[in-house]
Write a structure and sequence with these properties.
Strand order of the largest sheet: 7-6-5-8-9-10
CATH architecture of the largest domain: 3-Layer(aba) Sandwich
Shape: flat
Structural class: alpha/beta
Strand content: 15-25%
CATH superfamily of the largest domain: von Willebrand factor, type A domain
Order of helices and strands: HHEEHEHEEHEEHHEHEHEH
Number of domains: 3
Largest sheet: 6 strands, mixed
Radius of gyration: 31 Å
Length: 370
């Protein structure tokens, strides 16, 4: 039987999920949500949920208080002798904000439901392990839900036959406490599909702080969804201007650089990384590149297209290119790859003009379920 508090908690969680779903676009566009992230949860402010509180009702009859005094007189020395609060009293109601912790799995589920994202069909299964429980033996203690009827019956029958109480003409078997046997389990490792996300970001002079913030937010939500599909997801980060290098996550999101842009440098590092560490036969590979579309030259764009066509797209489950609008970038790169590779099933492109477009961009990237 479910207790009342469990029912209330379940109802409250459904209300929270409804609020998150209703305001998902706002939450996605807010960069401060990542700063509230814990190990497995995110703290989300819920100002729309009223907090239960006591209120004073009408009192037409006399109350139970006794003693001297009139309504409004100070209590316990307050008033002239007490220290009152500074400022004037107002008659408006204060703002209320309730912070609710939501697991990343719940957040991914809500994201998937709201955007209509399909489940991903993974490939490969030989490096990452998950745990699976197998019932392999019996023991004399345990919960009734794990009691083995067959083993208990056999023990009771054996005991009654040995003691001479078993009657073939009236075969009634009555187990006692010592006859009961319960299933026991053993936890075994089970191979699980491998997956890696390779993020690439343009950090040249034309990519400002606002553009990098958009990349940071979108990467968080893409990461959240893919981690709900795979156990033990790996992540790698590449930054580039005229040259590219592999960096840690913190460096990826905080780097401020200037200089020209040579996109092929990032694609070459990505290709080398896949060749050395992530075999396409065993790994589900997702690559996402974010830039303002301003490349060094037509020749370098041609090099990028060749790398995509011959190396990266064949190796990846999906390659996503997100072009973030910048007042300094030409935005030409997305036009070039769409003209040459636009029909490729593994290539997904998206244009992001502001934070309001992040949710639509995420849906564009993930709706294929690859």
């Amino acid at each position: 039987m479910i207790s009342r508090i469990d029912k209330d908690h379940s109802r409250f969680r459904e209300i929270v999920r409804g609020k998150i779903r209703k305001n998902l676009r706002k939450y996605i566009s807010r960069g401060d949500l990542m700063s509230r992230k814990g190990k497995d949860t995110v703290s989300i402010p819920m100002p729309q949920i009223d907090i239960p509180r006591f209120t004073l009702g009408g009192n037409d009859k006399n109350g139970v208080g006794q003693g001297e005094g009139e309504p409004g007189d100070p209590i316990d020395g307050e008033g002239e002798q007490g220290q009152g609060g500074a400022g004037k009293a107002g008659e408006g109601e204060g703002d209320k904000s309730l912070e609710v912790e939501v697991t990343l799995d719940e957040l991914a589920e809500i994201l998937g439901e709201e955007l209509g994202l399909p489940r991903i069909e993974p490939k490969g299964s030989d490096a990452l392990d998950t745990k699976k429980d197998r019932y392999v033996s019996l023991r004399t203690t345990g919960p009734e839900s794990l009691r083995s009827f067959k083993a208990t019956f056999k023990r009771a029958l054996r005991r009654q036959v040995a003691s001479g109480t078993y009657q073939p003409g009236r075969p009634i078997i009555v187990p006692v406490r010592e006859d009961r046997r319960y299933r026991s389990w053993r936890t075994e490792p089970r191979p699980q599909s491998n997956a890696v996300i390779i993020y690439m970001m343009d950090v040249s002079g034309s990519m400002g702080d606002e553009q990098k913030e958009i990349v940071r937010i979108e990467s968080f939500w893409i990461d959240t969804w893919l981690r709900s599909q795979y156990s033990g997801l790996e992540s790698r980060y590449i930054i580039h201007d005229a040259t590219a290098r592999l960096v840690e996550r913190e460096v990826f999101f905080r780097t401020r650089e200037s200089g020209g842009t040579m996109i092929s440098s990032a694609y070459k590092v990505c290709a080398e990384l896949i060749e050395k560490e992530f075999s396409p036969e065993a790994w589900n590979i997702y690559a996402f590149h974010f830039s303002d579309g301003d490349n060094w030259s037509v020749d370098d764009t041609s090099t990028c297209i060749n790398l995509l066509r011959n190396v990266l797209l064949p190796a990846c489950n999906q390659f996503g290119y997100g072009q973030v609008e910048s007042p300094y970038g030409s935005g030409q790169f997305i036009k070039d790859i769409r003209n040459t590779l636009g029909e490729h099933e593994k290539l997904v492109t998206s244009e992001i003009t502001s934070k309001d477009d992040i949710m639509d961009s995420i849906k564009e990237f993930l709706k294929g379920g690859r």
